[in-house]
Amino acid sequence: MAEQLAKRPINVPLMSNLAAAGEEPEILFWVGCAGAFDDRYKRVTRAFVQILEHVGVKYAVLGMEETCTGDPAKRAGNEFLFQMQAVQNITTFEGYGIKKIVTACPHCFNTIKNEYPALGGNYDVIHHSTFLQQLINEGRVGVSGGGEFKGQRITFHDSCYLGRANNIYEAPRDVLATLDADLVEMKRSKANGLCCGAGGAQMWKEPEPGKKDINVERTEEALATLDGNAAALANLYGVESGNAGATPSARNDQRGIIAVSCPFCMTMMSDGVKNKERESTVQVFDIAELIATAEGLNA
Amino acid sequence: MHFSIQNLLFLLVALAGFGLFVWQARKVRANILVGRDRDMSGNVSERLNKTLLVAFGQQKMFKRITPALLHLVVYVGFLVINIEVIEIMIDGLFGTHRALSFLGPLYNVLMATNEILGALVILAVAAFWWRRNSKPPVRRFTGPELRAWPKLDANVILYIEVILMVALFTMNASDLKLHQLEGVDLPGTFPISSLLTGLLPSSVAALEVLERVGWWAHIVGILCFLNYLPSSKHFHIILAFPNVFYSRLVPQGQFSNVDSITHEVKAMMDPSYVVPAPATNPDGSAVAPTPFGAKDVNDLAWTNLLNAYSCTECGRCTSVCPANLTGKLLSPRKIIMDTRDRVEEKYNSPLIFHPNMYGAEAKHAEQETLDKENHTLLRGYVTPEELWACTTCNACVEACPVNINPLESIIEMRRFLVLEESAAPNSLNVMFSNIENNGAPWAFSPSDRFNWADDLFVTEKA
């Protein structure tokens, strides 16, 4: 007997409305600029909200009261602009008595968690990978057995601001493990992960002159890993031992998924896949999208 | 014990050697302390723990097993052979011969360990030499910052280490043969030297000279090496320990807060905020304001300068830097090496001082004018093109076996460019004004910020 499915409209709760009603959310979901404006990452925001709705967490968002955390300004050296943004956000948080913040952006996560305390903002900040891991451990999501991702080849690309910056390596992997997929690790992963090329405000500027774009280098590694293309990998890593410029790898059209947990990584890896003309076989997804899809929340 | 002119000579040589080193070390200390003050006190047990793991325990070296094992041999050899150096010092000062031989069986173990480590050190050094000098060498031993003096320095260290080991074996083997000829047992066990005695002459007079030559060469060599350290990347054998001890304990993603800006921002936001009075000198005059960020070495924190003196130029940072890997100008190692060159150029120079000279390849972005005003760490050594290539990914910080943090110095120089010179790349200025005007780094209207929530559904079991 087929299960009866129903589409329920979501009215995303605004913090201002909750406060007016004298209510307090369990978590504040910090959407971030990419999550609010970037067409691709808006889908991640929506997927994460579907998960929140599905498990029934009492959450709220700031809506138009949100403003940039100041991360790109700080990484670019504009400490003044960073602090202006930070103080403005801290004032908003304090006004609502916010204690716990969940965000799908590792840059927002790092900035609010590590850099706001020096300016008087102390919160329990959780990246959505850790939050999803907790929901999984509690048996509230990840019970689908993977759905359409069961057995698919997936490689996870570490975000620098989640990984090296904050030592979170296992949470996103634990989330992916619930998909019962064929997970493959790139050689440069976890603490040795290679940046997608967007951090440090690179997202907003052209790269300096060089031989290659960083996102292309990283995408080539992800594709060769998904393909199991040993020759391509030897060529990539050969640069380390002075072996650069060996024969280019044979084209391999293995299907696969590059999983990310950061809006900038999403842009860079998606652009990389386009650059390598592999859009027809390889897709880039955020871990929240994978979970929402596996659970059938966006059917 | 027979005190002789040799002992007096030794006393003078040792005093001169250590005296010269102390004099040099004080100059290095002064150089490091031109950096900005930064409170790194407290958390002593956590810091000691980290020093034990990372510095003594070589924890981060073991990310790459081959060089880790080779380095371990030389490191343990250095630690253990120093016990024999203590004996040499005692013998030298008091005219004793093998003063520690009263240890009996323990002495046998000690000498045998020394000899085996000594032989392994020679093999490891040969491997190190090959990794640097074969064609092509290991990639991280190349690059514009690793030519001329740094390249020579790396090889000189290896040659000195071999000379010291050869001197040690000359001393032990001739001593052993002398005793064999006299039919007396030499205290200690010498597994390597006993294989070498056949290579030595059988004349007692010649052996006595050889033994003395080996003895003097070893100890004078060590004193010379000690005084070579402040001019060399090999200084890491000492400074790695304080450098790890004083490295940051906060998450790597946390960038420092600029407190002077915090006061300004808080005063802007809240008119009742009282900005603390500016610091004053002991005589009551105002301390000259420091610039935002770093233009020159004295604008960096003292820990950043300690970083520069602790660097052994191994290039692990540069070899994992995404910018460098894809052909950009940025090399974190160069930033650190430039910092040391600049502090030694501006303040105290070591005995041997050859700051790196870079050709056009390191400065292809803009032709920097090397006038006096611009001859600072920023622009004189490090170009804006290098700084803007950084993705702040922390790979260099993670890779450094002695916890050097090139990223801090990069950010300090970016701060100077942006806050003091408004010299950010144009596209970043656009991003700044987007944040100021729209509250987002992109040119979107703030009123569209909540549009993502339109027409949103969740599919659930009915």
UniProtKB/TrEMBL annotation, chain B:
Keyword check for Nucleotide-binding: no
| Bilayer-crossing regions | 68-94, 106-130, 156-174, 186-207, 213-229
Gene Ontology cellular component list: plasma membrane
Chain ranges of the 4Fe-4S ferredoxin-type domain: 302-332, 380-410
UniProt cross-references to InterPro entries, sorted A to Z: 4Fe4S_Fe-S-bd (IPR017896), 4Fe4S_Fe_S_CS (IPR017900), HdrC_iron-sulfur_subunit (IPR051460), Helical_ferredxn (IPR009051), NarG-like_sf (IPR036197)
UniProt keyword list: 4Fe-4S, Iron, Iron-sulfur, Membrane, Metal-binding, Oxidoreductase, Transmembrane, Transmembrane helix
Q: This chain belongs to which protein, by name? A: (Fe-S)-binding protein
Q: Print the organism lineage.
A: Bacteria, Pseudomonadati, Bacteroidota, Cytophagia, Cytophagales
